[in-house]
Amino acid sequence: MQDLRQLENEILAQGRVAGQALELLRKKLHSTDGTVGRTEADFLVVLHKRVEHVSPAFEQFFYQTIKGHILVNGRINAEMVAWLRQLLFTDGTIKDEKRKLLHELKGEATHIAPEFEAAPSVQEALGRGADAVHHKPLNVSELLQTLDRLAK
Q: Model pTM?
């Protein structure tokens, strides 16, 4: 983890993740079996939020890595739904990249917890489509309340 913290400091000093730094990050995050654990996924989420300039390559790497972490066993359970809630709905809007991730997760998962399927705002996000260009931001507070209620 110390190697990751050192890499994080170097990336933040540059203000972006590109080229060699992205390749090094890819190697450090993936274990020998190619998966990314929760600690590494949490690290990547924090780094993604803190990087000043998110390059298209880093954006693609971020969402592919997160998707791989979530679908490591093909299932989205209640715990993963709660983690997704923290990841996707903290800034008050659902951007196209996040919508696309939700669509891909729904399409590729072999089993999805009822908490994922039951949230009206998640369904609204999925219904609008990942490639929608003009749309209103989702009511995130409604979604968070629904997810909290379902988690109890």
A: 0.76
